[in-house]
Queue: 4 jobs
Job 1
Amino acid sequence: MTNFSDNRYYELFERQKKNQFRVASTNYKTRIKKLKALRLALEKTYKQDIRDAIYADFKKPKLEVDLTEIYPVIDEINFATKHLKSWLKKQRVDTPIALLGSSSWIKNEPKGVCLIISPWNFPVNLTFGPLVSAIAAGNTVILKPSEMTSHTSKLMKKIIEDLFEEDEVALVEGEVAEAQELLKLPFNHIFFTGSPQVGKIIMKAASDHLASVTLELGGKSPVIIDDSSNLDKAVRKLVFGKFMNSGQTCIAPDYVFINASVKEKFISLFKKEVEAFYTAKPEVSDSFSRIVNQKHFKRLSGYLDDARSSGVEIVSGGAVNENDNYIEPTLVFGSKSDSALMTNEIFGPILPVMLYETIDEVCDYINGNEKPLALYIFSKNKRTINTIVNNTRAGSTCINHNLLQFLNHNLPFGGSNNSGIGKSHGYYGFLEFTNQRSVLKQHTIAAVDLLMPPYNRFKQRMVNATIKWF
Ligand code: NAD
């Protein structure tokens, strides 16, 4: 057995480990009480503090905080509260005839002590959202939010300390070093949201203890707008989805395919919508947030410098302000497939557009890259929609809009391979933190009792009949 006693978080981990069976034994009513206390903290006690903290971190507008940080967690709580009783019921399953005399069921039991590591881009949503699922499933939890949104992390620590004992839910503030120290401990489940690069590090660390993982990762999410779509509406929705949170959204449209024939109309609609949303000078708009820090500002302005020097057309936007981590909503045409813009997840307000001729060519391009977290289609043509959905792979798809698939708690949310492993939200989130324990109870003599050694010809004939008839 490895000795973890020199780990900085050993004592906290051990306390949660000791407490896990008490927490696991709580019924749905007790868990709902905890979830409701969290809801009250988000919608009343700390609502304004949350808005202020996220504004201090990256000037996110108040309405976007309410809509994309507070509302999704409250919705997750409401859904879990409504269904938890049935999720925790033992689920009887059928008995095959060969197992006559027995009954079987599934017991949804908690995994145990869980670690949730979250990113900065939706700091409250992506820390407390998975926490709701973990609490509903009956786990103890250590949270490690991002160091990049430190005001929000500090506030979340206060909220957690206000609502929970440390041996049930605790929040560790810190940087990469703190995350790595936590990862050395033998958690039963690790729920990570972040980049595919760090996802690989998490999975390697989890393998030391064979901890199960949920990896909610990112990547490049394409958009296809075909000739049949209503271009005015498509561009309006696209501008909303791309520039909300200043493009720092895991499922934000990353790049767009349009037909060459609509290029000029697309550009003029794009300019019109950006101006309608953020005024002619988005830098002074209250509706447009900033890039989270200098590191990401430099990465994004580097993409623009790279684009300019390789002759890419910046047809709209392109202005930056280093002192305020500001990057204007920007539209570019003609990026090469091996350019920085087309090989990295952009995660910022820059939108490259590719011109296509056939849908097959679009599917080939998408399939030539990693599986996206989201894929968007704007089209009225059923055949085109089916061709794209059937010939590509993606974590999720939204047709004739974008981002909205995240908000339906009846849908599993997550990626596939490079964009993620496992799913979150609603029942799917609850299952990630649950061990579906199989239980079989024998009531009478079992058929297999007649087949125990020593084996003979009669028993062989019974096995033959079982294989043939049952
Ligand atoms: P990140 O991977 O850099 O960091 C996420 C978390 O991991 C942070 O808490 C950080 O402290 C920790 N971390 C960073 N490096 C680490 C290391 N070497 N070892 C251990 N822990 C480490 O991601 P980010 O920059 O915070 O967020 C952006 C990424 O997250 C994008 O790729 C985005 O697409 C993705 N994302 C995915 C989802 C989703 O639901 N699938 C949601 C939001 C963001």
Note: Residues 117-121, 126, 144, 146-147, 176, 179-180, 193-195, 198, 201, 216-218, 250, 345, 347, 373, 415, 420 surround nicotinamide-adenine-dinucleotide (CB under 6 Å).
Job 2
Amino acid sequence: MIKNIPPMGWNTWNTFAEKINEELVLSSAEQLVSSGLKKVGYEYVVIDDCWSLRERDRSGALVPDPEKFPHGMKYVADALHKMGLKFGMYSCCGGMTCASYPASLNHEYADARAFARWGVDYLKYDYCFKPSSVDGKALYRRMGTALSGCGRDILFSGCSWGSDNTHEWIGTTGANIWRSTGDIVDTWDSVKSIIKQQYAILPYGGVGCFNDMDMLIVGMHGKGHVGLKGCTDDEYRLHFAAWCMLASPLMIGCDVRNMDETTKEILTDPVLLSIAKDERGNRPYFFHNWNNDDWTIFVRLLANGDIAVGFFNLSDSGVDLWLSADDIGVPDFSGKTLSGVEAYSGASVRAVNGVLSKELAPHSCAVWRLQVKNK
Ligand code: GLA
């Protein structure tokens, strides 16, 4: 089924990788509820790779690892549904998952039926160990068909990292979201590189099949599986703002049981979430000022006629960015001007003489939700 807004939730991979179990998943889910994250939209709890035994059983079925998930997956699904959350799982189109657990190649229909029986609402589908003799798109179409007929509405999350020109065929597979890049890690360079890889593929996102820029690293601070160096809070702010502006899924990757207040504030910023969840799904576009592609302005027309504008300074020096209202459809002769509110700070902003401008520190951003008003 078409999803009008990109999914939001939490995924086990970034922090926990193979160290997952029922207690971790359900206690993190409880935290999503009690911290208020569920209330603002984070509703999918996704168990990533490493949840099964290393072998299928004699009938060919995937078996949840009884040490990690002693009550099985239906139990986890029921518990999540009782909390008002949705349940996501993971498999792969190759013979094995990326961490070498059994995957769905040639088991697509049986696995889709099992996921439906267990109460799964979301399937992340990876691209490792894909036989070179078979087209990835054929395998994704196979799982897309299997999910469509499995009797349950399961969001299909393609994860082929943009390989094999994914953007050209992913919309034909039934996928609701598609991973456009390799894996994120918790460093500034990783965030910057993923943002810069989006320029060329902005036309391939939005309602129908959202472009997935990978799980969030906000609040990881160097801890956990993809932890590495960590980022500053300003870098996390910019990261989250870019994912919202570009309508990426928002899957939290930090340990939500140990979040600091700043992390929570970033993940729940009301201005950014109103942009991320805009149902019209108009495509964002961008400007590079002065031919420097580290100084980027993303713009998105929203459902009610507001305009989201984000100034992003990906460079290592400060910069004064500006944008003419005329360039985003509001010329001076229209008698209209722009004013609105800034994400994170809540400050008011308005165009002065038809121009929006802002001085930005290195690795920082300013995002506004602007209304088009009479002068
Ligand atoms: C791939 C995916 C990641 C994660 C791992 C699990 O690398 O891109 O998001 O799911 O596999 O092994």
Note: The two ends are 43 Å apart (CA to CA).
Job 3
Amino acid sequence: MSLSTHQQNLAKIAVAIGVNLQAGQKLVINAPAECAEFARAIAKAAFERGAGDVSVKYSDEHVARMRYDHASTETLTKVPAWHIDRLKSMVDDGDAVISIHAEDPDVMSGVDAEKVKAAAVALNKAAMPYHDAIINNRIRWCVIAVPTVGWAKKVFPDLPDADAVSALWDAIIKASRVEGDDPIANWQAHNDSFNAKSDFLNRHQFKAFHYQSKNGTDLEVGMPEGYIFTGGAEAAEDGVIFFPNIPTEEVFSAPHKDKVNGTLVSSHPLVYNGQLIDGFRFTFKDGHVTDFHADVGEEALKSLVNATEGSDQLGEIALVPYHSPISEMNILFYNTLFDENASCHFALGSAYPTCIEGGTDMNEEQLKNTGLNVSATHVDFMVGTDDLRITGIMADGTKIPVFENGDWAI
Ligand code: ZN
Ligand code: ZN
């Protein structure tokens, strides 16, 4: 089986738009073993663009699962030196990194959650310099998604394996804007639209946004002074523009953690720690969740809200039009890269320091003082409906429509 033109276009877009690979630059590809054919297409596109070198690190989620089943916690929390050396050399050499996400959402079900948590904490701690480099865009990176049988069967459980994979491919191609004669032009136009929206929102420095929908949402979200909306492309430390996520549809910022009041009703189900939460709503008072309900999965919702410090306060406000390619497909992807981009959403938990002026130079206390939420958790949930209205309220009380009938009004 060879890749279709659209699939090859996705590989090219990841290289040219995603990490914006420069002549002579090295590229690292992180890929599930199942996605080897696609990793090869990325390597080909990279060399055609003048890559200095390309290396692929393959992973296998089934072996990862075996490790949790058989290796001891002591072993799993001891991060090998070669792993860290590899990350360090990537950052030091200024390599570009493309990561393919294709997890089967159920592959870890039944695994000892404490073991997974301990291994993740150890890895995060050991890999801190690398994660730091990513958060501060010191290197250019991009996350894309490619179907595997396990993931595709979760999304399309009623289809035979091959059909499920091909249906998921179709959805990814559509969502990733690689159709038509000139996918690069699609992405340039897409980015112009992100810039226009962010500029408008940043210029107005709204005091608050008022959300209203006939599903019961009636929420005022206060904004911190000096907030920054961003979306689409980002500039790396060296000034080169790149797209960390393909696809992407959101323009996002950080709300003021203590100035959220009213009722917020979800529009889509949420999968949290493998559990489905649906038909849920929150009541906010002075930024905190004071009441909540879920038709399905209320216990999981409770553990989400009470998880840790800051998990009962908002850390992200994201605007996504109801009529975007992803949301119009009306598919639950079980993959944040897609589900987060299907609808206007908020996140309970931490804010991105990049969402406030000077934020990347602030410590936790300073971030909190500006109104940004600091927490060990960050969970997105969707609130976009076809009748969602969002009104921007300026400091002098002037009201400006930002969203009407679920779509941008600016
Ligand atoms: Zn988001
Ligand atoms: Zn988020």
Note: The first strand starts at residue 26 and ends at 32.
Job 4
Amino acid sequence: MMRTRPLKVALLGCGVVGSEVARIMTTHADDLTARIGAPVELAGVAVRRPSKVREGIDPALITTDATALLKRGDIDIAIEVIGGIEPARTLITTAFEHGISVVSANKALLAQDGAALHAAAEQHGLDLYYEAAVAGAIPLVRPMRESLAGDKINRVMGIVNGTTNFILDKMDSTGAGYQEALDEATALGYAEADPTADVEGYDAAAKAAILAGIAFHTRVRLDDVYREGMTEVSATDFASAKRMGCTIKLLAILERAADGESVTARVHPAMIPLTHPLASVREAYNAVFVEAEAAGRLMFYGPGAGGSPTASAVLGDLVAVCRNKLAAATGPGESAYTQLPVSPMGDVVTRYHISLDVADKPGVLAQVATTFAEHGVSIDTVRQQGRPDGVGNEASLVVVTHRAPDAALSGTVEALRKLDTVRGVASIMRVEGE
Ligand code: NDP
Ligand code: HSE
């Protein structure tokens, strides 16, 4: 039976994502009503700059006092698309204290304070949904949380940041410069308010923390995730990758240890073979592989950033939360019962591609090979060539290792730096996806 009293929504933030949420709520109002079983009404919109022109939004709905909007007594659901830690955290807490369920796209906040926010939602018998916080439009949080709830996820690997994928793709395919590509991604609405979060890997690390928590039913915070950004990736790295039949992507990789007693979570640039499906993920698209014991390998792919794709995920959550409200129920909360520890990066087993500038004289190769052997690292391939810039008496030595613990690999690099015959370490890149 259709309920006639509308469910009232407070939209907190009306920028790239919020403006699209408002647009779809208005243009698809009849469909949303039919799917939910009750009308859903945009009852207030909190922003920072009230005088800004906002197409399609009744100016009477605009307020700068988000707290008052939540406290006025008629709001059922709050959509938080402000971003950042404060005031978003206090507003979400206020919403729960006033019986309001929350939909959020805020990965930074969820990665930092997800446990406390989940606890507050549970304490008040309310929902906290955040599909849009990870991988834009791609349904990933709910499939992992609900569809795979009966399986055991062992590994998740993917591209979870649209901005950096856009930049790396442009650098690789058109030779565009880093800043030029970042400016374009920002203009398209992909980047965070402070794009440092994207390019230094914080945004991907936040998403990795959220996904690892869901995948392994444990608590993983932003600080638990090993993080390297992509600002150091150069045209030379792309040239090296091409010679190996690879490209470079910023990857998030979450793994359960073989003994099942711990997990690892990391974000860093890596070379992947051009034949790997992640190599063909272009522009701001994201793609995530989930490996589960019974299901096998699943791949989720789609637009990873931008107003309209992200609004799709927010609206999906809105419908789910509205349905829960009407059924006087809540969706699944946090599941952290395994309490698995997060191991340090040094324990991760991976491969390195190392490019060295060395003295071009007899015995150097043997010295370098001995250094690898002393650290227990086995070499897969070695390629030596004269320096492309023609520097006399120097050669470029490119070593690709077999899989070894990251601590052994980084120890090897430190020892190589100390050799008299090694003039410099031109680049180090992990190799994944083989
Ligand atoms: P924007 O910067 O475009 O929008 C932020 C909005 O919040 C603006 O409307 C701003 O008001 C409002 N705001 C800022 N401070 C306050 C405050 N103190 N009180 C009330 N309103 C405030 O961000 P996005 O829309 O890009 O991102 C929003 C969230 O969605 C972030 O958590 C982001 O990480 C996440 N997200 C973004 C994606 C994207 O592709 N952009 C994709 C997935 C998630 P005003 O308009 O007046 O400035
Ligand atoms: N800045 C983020 C990205 C937005 O580029 O992926 C989507 O979460």
Note: Residues 136, 161-163, 190-192, 198, 203, 304-305 surround L-homoserine (ligand 2) (CB under 6 Å).
